[in-house]
Task: inverse folding
């Protein structure tokens, strides 16, 4: 270890430490130390540094080591060097402001009833690692170059088979686009609509709040259309003036209802007679506990319905893998938009998902999760009966969340704040409504909470509820 602990060669105080056991080269250690001092403001613009000879003598290194370090810093713009003149900190350099450590923007709760989270601990890590290894072993070298922006062909074929078999979708791998989750898929579609001078998009009311944000960010006007026990009110959609609508027909968010066959037929008729387009959010349809899965609306009219799904609820949100089943007339427009945006989604994860699907691991995982989520839903309903009297769960035995009606007179926002004070994160239906009013309700997710956590969380929610009751 060598160091300089004071002014060297008439320059400012310069503290450099070299570790000869460090695998980092000596000149890189000098560069890093001086660069950090400049950024931190310890070496101000215009400051004179020791000559290369003086600094080399002080540090016990060859002059060439210091010369190389000074040369690199000069090339990066940190130092100004000139033949016969002192080495100085460049006049354009400004100290960086001190920064705080990186932190998450996401809220943190001891018990978070997030309605969109699957069981993260239940993610099949070992099986997924097997698929990743298989993907690396079997993929040709070209697979890690620039790939087909639609997605790797193997995954598109596997998705076509799976979605046709499980969701009853009408699939064509040539018109299937792999995207970075549902959000990117809908965003691409909305921006294309805006480019075609479409002005309005109809959304379910209440409906998933991010739908609204994505549509508005694309510059489109949102038109809310009410939902009842049979799904979207198609009669009111006709009067809305919109030619595009986003729906969740297999499991409406947040009400949990299934779109009736009569409404499905009416919605397809609306699209076909009015040259309309339906965007189907297929987010958690495999998780039903009272009946078989409800087939995708897209299977009834593949040239009128765009189906967007993802691995977020089926496996894990952080995978950021989704898919779009596009009508034949729309597919190449979306492919062009995807190409410009990012040249295609990450390929290794796609190859791993292909392996995971064709080996039957996705089917097995979903079977396990259906049993687990059904048990957690039952635990939630039982805990509400014990600890939150007056809270009435819905009857939609599906998905990862439960719609819960609150006792009359309870202020929804006040209850959410009171729960947060107790370490419990809950979401109110008002977040997903377009118009004010309506009965106070919560959307309680149970997917990522084991039964004991559900019990403790609901007990605390009951305490918060008691503090918010009128009178």
Result:
């Amino acid at each position: 270890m060598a160091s300089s602990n004071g002014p060297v060669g008439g320059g400012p105080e310069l503290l450099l430490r070299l570790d000869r056991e460090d695998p980092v080269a000596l000149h890189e250690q000098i560069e890093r130390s001086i660069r950090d001092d400049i950024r931190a403001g310890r070496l101000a613009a215009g400051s004179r540094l020791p000559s290369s000879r003086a600094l080399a003598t002080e540090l016990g290194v060859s002059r060439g080591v210091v010369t190389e370090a000074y040369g690199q810093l000069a090339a990066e713009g940190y130092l100004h060097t000139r033949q016969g003149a002192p080495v100085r900190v460049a006049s354009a350099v400004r100290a960086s402001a001190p920064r705080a450590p990186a932190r998450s923007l996401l809220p943190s709760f001891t018990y978070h009833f997030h309605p969109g989270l699957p069981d993260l601990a239940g993610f099949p890590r070992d099986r997924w690692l097997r698929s990743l290894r298989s993907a690396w072993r079997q993929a040709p070298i070209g697979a890690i170059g620039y790939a087909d922006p639609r997605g790797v062909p193997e995954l598109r074929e596997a998705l076509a088979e799976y979605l046709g078999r499980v969701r009853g979708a009408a699939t064509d791998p040539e018109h299937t686009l792999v995207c970075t989750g549902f959000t990117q898929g809908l965003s691409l579609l909305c921006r294309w609509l805006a480019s075609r001078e479409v002005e309005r998009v109809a959304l379910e009311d209440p409906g998933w709040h991010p739908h609204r944000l994505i549509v508005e960010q694309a510059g489109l006007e949102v038109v809310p259309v009410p939902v009842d026990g049979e799904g979207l009110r198609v009669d009111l959609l006709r009067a809305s003036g919109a030619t595009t609508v986003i729906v969740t027909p297999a499991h409406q968010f947040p009400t949990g209802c299934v779109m009736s066959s009569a409404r499905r037929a009416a919605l397809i008729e609306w699209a076909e007679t009015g040259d309309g387009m339906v965007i189907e959010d297929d987010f958690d349809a495999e998780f039903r506990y009272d009946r078989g899965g409800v087939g995708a609306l897209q299977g009834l009219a593949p040239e009128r319905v765009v189906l967007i799904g993802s691995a977020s609820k089926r496996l894990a949100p952080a995978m950021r893998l989704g898919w779009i089943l596009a009508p034949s007339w729309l597919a190449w427009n979306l492919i062009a938009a995807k190409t410009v945006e990012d040249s295609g989604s990450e390929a290794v994860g796609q190859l791993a998902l292909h392996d995971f699907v064709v080996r039957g691991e996705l089917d097995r995982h979903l079977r396990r999760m259906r049993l687990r989520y059904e048990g957690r839903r039952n635990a939630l309903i039982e805990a509400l009966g014990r600890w939150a009297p007056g809270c009435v769960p819905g009857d939609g035995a599906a998905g990862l969340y439960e719609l819960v009606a609150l006792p009359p007179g309870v202020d929804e926002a006040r209850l959410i704040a009171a729960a947060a004070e107790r370490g419990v994160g809950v979401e109110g239906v008002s977040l997903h409504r377009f118009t004010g009013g309506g009965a106070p309700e919560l959307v309680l997710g149970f997917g990522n909470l084991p039964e004991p956590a559900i019990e403790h969380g609901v007990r605390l929610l009951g305490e918060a509820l008691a503090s918010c009751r009128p009178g």
User: Anything to note?
Assistant: The chain has three domains: 2-89, 123-361, 364-468. The first helix runs from residue 26 to 40.
